[in-house]
Amino acid sequence: MAGLREAQKRMTRQLLLDSALGLFRAKGYAATTVDDIAAAAGTTRVTFYAYFPSRSDLMRALIGELNEKLERVDSPARRSTARRLVEVVQDGSREAITEWLYDISGRWDSVRPHLVAAFEAAAVDPDLRGLVNAWLDEAVSDVEEGLHRAGRFAPDSRHLRGVLVIAQLDHVARNWTPGRWKADREAMIDILAESWTGLLSDGTAQSPTQAPAPDQP
After folding, report:
1. What is the DSSP letter of 181?
2. Which helix (H) or strand (E) holds 73?
3. What is the DSSP string of 78-128?
């Protein structure tokens, strides 16, 4: 019985999260109330508050889901990290960057509602604004860490390079859909990879599978 109750609690919590995300997508974060979310989930505001002290706390839980979808894991140094992103930046090759961007772009349809809701929430809730800004900073730190491991570029330039590539990625992830900006997925990834390579590679990066050019006589 205890296991059944726990399963029901998890189902109710997930139903509230899914209902809220659907409403945020349809109406926007600011226009969606706790009563709206409870009604969409087929429950009451009392039940809502049994799971989330506030709408902001529910949004924090959605950001936690976003981290899971993006394979961001806990990190003692900077709260969360995407280890694969660090490795790709460390590699620095156009091939590795392109492969990673293709993989992550395949998740954009799934994460876009979370991203849009998070940024809408940040616009009206100062606490969430700080959380979203910190979340972006964690991604920037991944880029910095990759450049640090590779020993590329002056240390005082690595943060700005991270800011620029993550800003590009965030904007495209939230706004690009097939055919938008007159670019299909392949063209969009190719141009984004070109920009990232320019910012993250100093020309010495080489894919591990790429053989060195033979010495010239």
Report:
1. G
2. strand 73-75
3. TEEE-HHHHHHHHH--HHHHHHHHHHHHTTHHHHHHHHHHHHHHHHH-HHH
- Note the pLDDT tens digit of each residue in 120-143: 999 999 989 999 999 999 999 999
pLDDT in tens, 17-49: 999 999 999 999 999 999 999 999 999 999 999
Distance (Å, whole) CA 137 – CA 106: 23
The model's pTM: 0.84
Task: Give CA–CA dist 34/155, Å, rounded.
Answer: 46
What is the phi/psi pair of residue 183, to 5°? Answer: -140, 125
- For residue 34, give both structure tokens: 């706790």
Amino acid in the structure at residue 17: L
Residue given tokens 């591990």 in the structure block: 208
CB burial of 31-66 (b: ≥16 within 10 Å; e: otherwise) equals ebebebbbebbebeeebbeebbeebbebbbbbbebb
Helix or strand holding residue 74 (H, E): strand 73-75
Residues 34, 53: contact at Cβ < 8 Å?
no
183 half-sphere exposure, CB direction, 13 A CA radius: 12
